[in-house]
Amino acid sequence: MRDRYEPGEFEEKWRQRWRDADLFKTREEEGRPKLYALEFFPYPSGAGLSVGHCRNYVPTDVLARLKYMQGYNVLHPMGFDAFGLPAENEALKHKRHPGPMVQEYGENYRRQMDLVGIGYDWSRCFFSSDPSYYRWTQWIFKLLYRKGLAYHKLAEVNWCPKDKTALANEEVVGGLCERCGTPVERKAIPQWFFKITDYAQRLLDDLEDLDWPEGIKAMQRQWIGRSEGVQFRMEWTLLEGDRSVDQPRARESDPDLESLMAEVRAEGEPNADAESLRKADGFAQRLGAIAGDAISAEELHGAGKEIARLGEGLEIRRTAPPSFEVYTTRIDTLFGVTFCVVAPEHPMLKEVLPGVGPAIAASVREYQAAAGRLSDAARSDEGREKTGVFSGAYAIHPISGRTVPIWVADYVLMGYGTGAVMAVPGHDQRDFEFAQKFGLPIVPVIAPPGEGGLDLVAESHSAGKAYSSSDGVLVNSGVFSHRTVAQAQNDLADWFEANEIGSRKVVFRMRDWLISRQRFWGCPIPVVYDAEGGLELVPDDQLPVLLPDVPHYEPGEDASSPLASIPDFVNVTTQDGRLGRRETDTLGGFACSSWYFLRFCDPHNDEKPWSPERVAEWMPVDCYVGGAEHAVMHLLYARFWTKVLYDSGLVPVKEPFQRLMNQGQVLGYTPYRNATDKESLDVGETGVLVTPEEAANLPESEVTWRWVRMSKSKGNVVTPDEAIAEYGADALRLHELFVAPFDADVEWKNDGMQGSARFLSRVFRLVAEGWREEASDSPRADEEAWIEVAQRAYHRCLKKTTDDIERFAFNTAVAAQMTLLNTLSEQWANRGSLSTNGIERWREVLKGFVVMLAPMAPFSADELWEAMGEEGYTYHQEWPTVDERLAAATTVTIAVQVNGKLRDTIEMDAASDRAEIESAALVLPRILEHTQGKEIRRIIVVPGRLVNVVV
RNA sequence: GCCGGGGUGGCGGAAUGGUAGACGCGGCGGUCUCAAACACCGUUGGGCCAAAACCCGUGCGGGUUCGAGUCCCGCCCCCGGCACCA
User: Considering the entire predicted model, what is its pTM?
Assistant: First the structure.
């Protein structure tokens, strides 16, 4: 019998046997509990797997194997996220077609996963680029469309000039393409969107009950970005001066205006011809010149409208004074408003500008143009100083009637809220900075409660900080003064609603999900347009809309999909036989990965995307394992689709992934050299990446080694192939499990696997010796007690192993195996001589040990199992049950403390009661030493644990 | 700035408010060997010391408790995410 771990001698044999026996085929037997274990849908990269990837595959496999042995029906499938930009870019680089390429890469992944011994049911494998799969992706797209959740519109989108496609908001990080780091441009193209915003509240609320890492939930909450506030209307005017809402506004008349308007009226009916436009322009200029004088805002505005009507044939609808909407979450600071700010793109500016003086109008137009030229990245640059210009108009405070200037500044974003804010520099940092830069007044209206509260606010201001805390009471706020922030928020919201000037409003930061991509390698969108631009869905019986089989698929220069230049694909007839044109954009890869977990339940169904019974059987995923980098995108999209499918009665669950686990990253030791004078480094880079060979040839002072995430581009990858060739699959598996807690990052060192290999060798030896042992005629007298020590150690270990695997504490589960081995080895060394029965019972313990080891080190376990004379596979063994009587300790070490300091320990029967423990403790010499001559005040006894004598 | 997670020997890390440092790596001493490697045995938080005993010790400062790595308050530092979102 083998007495060392020699993986090269037996691993391949078991791989073969497992494959031949179809060992990991999903069991779907009635009456068993189920476990659906799943890892994130991988894109199979050409570089293959690294030991870093194994850090989620191995632990999930251990859990799946344990659950199977415990009698669960286990679904543990694997497939490949083959559509999308990474695959297409890789294929372009190698001048290959992405189809066969991903197929080949996927097969390599599969080979490697088998090498590591991951127990997948490969009969369920699919690629998201399989027509039999994407047919149903298209089917779900249609469902979304019919439910009004997919829409097509011209939109200014994030455009990556390198990848030549539009990107979702989630794919833009700090103004750069998340994938290639190219600055994103704005571009107006017709796009498909999914209306995920309709589900914002539910996506937020349902996070509550998910067993997910806090950090991921927090990131999703932040991305959804719910805020509660008040949106209200503010009137604006071109004239400065106080207005009381209670007084009718004074009407002044102006002779210049009267004569101007007489001329305008004389022009007669509205007309859009060039001559009228020219005249209207002239009138508008004259009106602007008058605006500086004392005329009423209403009149001025009315006149502006009249002139506009003349030029553009517009109807005059507005009779109320002009106004704009603002949104705030701090309505309690309303009395601290000293100006307003609108985004440069705000539509009200079109109405304001004709009424203001030419100098102001010009400066606003110039500012708008400058803002338009700025990239998003530049606009949101950190620490950028505030910029802005006065618009020429004034907002009228809804309560005080006072006018405050309206500024135009790009720190207000058109895409959020109303694109206009009431600025409260006293209590908002951004407004504070703006006010300081442009010399606008700062009025404190919130003060911490108590004497001198206002001084604290003043202190904060002189330190350059707005007082933004909501802990305080209102001051300088008319009748609302002295109320707390919370009260005032409520009262003011009530006031706005009662006066019908505004109302409470919930705003989400999340936008709709942009899903179309102007690229070839993706799921075609099943839509046809007719000549009039009308849109129809491709009928179900014509799905899938297949990607054409073409040799060239390079993206176009002009924001059009490569599919657009393939006439056979584009030109179709509509349902009623007219000429039609296919949609040529494809779906972004995230669409494909938003439902694959449902398809795994029923992967070969060609009538439906899945059978409801199969999905009801398996969903939700009980344990979903992957990296934290998908915190927002994939996990949010998949949740959204699941909810839509739930609402349509197609799946019985509201949430796809009940429990989510993020594995830690594996870091490789990576050399960087100092940059030369001529080289410039990107932000965050502190050196130039070099290969280890290059590093070896450089002077030591030139090279810095750092731990960075393993990736092919960094050249710091260790593949499972290499690791297994040297140490074997089980040593790799054990090391992955043992090296650190599951969610901690790991600095990878190959020789760490040596320890695991040593452990396995010792197991082999212990088993071999146990089977070699021969019975003695005169066995040791206390054989019963001797064997019980082993049995107790075994059951304690079994209990811990089972618990630890379930709670993803694999490192301590492995430690428990090592502890058991240590105990058994020691016991074995002291075996003396044993009877036949004694040896038999010893071997039973070893069999249990091997079965318990099987999920973590399956190759060795099966090899040992066979060597022990057993048939079949450890995978088919029942997971042993813990004998609680044996798992419980008989004797315990009781700590004896005096005043909380440990002074001695005593061995006692585990069943000893308080009185026994106490009396045993008090007579210990070392305790007496510390208690003599002192008064014993109290004695705390924790049975099975400790005694604390308080003197 | 906001949010999340952390800070324990030389290192990775264990520890339902109850003996801090399980388990492993590394180190040290030894056995085997001509020798090395492998393997095996012993030892390994710091101080003091021949040893025992004792003292110190879980980022820092307070607190609660018979007892705090663990709970509470106030800080510091590290990692990750978000960031002009009104």
Answer: 0.89
